[in-house]
Structure prediction request, 97 residues.
Amino acid sequence: MRPVQLADIEMTARVLMQVPVERRVRLMQTLIGETECAEAYRLLHGAPHPQFGVGSLLSRAVRMQAAPRPAALEFDALDAYCAVVNALLAHQTHQTL
Prediction:
């Protein structure tokens, strides 16, 4: 996966806001896996993965239905942001062990 930027987190959180709270952790795991796949494909073929993009969360998220940008960060948006950040922390911790 390419280095994570703030735009990756925001857009991915907006995708998560489209699914029920109880499905967000699993969806994040899937998105991270697909993003890893896209990065490997990009490095091997020198081109974006046809479904998953260029190996960033943003490029994966823009290919999915996303909620509008929230005017304020209320519970649902905050929960989605937390799900993204927690999954990224878990992934990074796993990568460094």
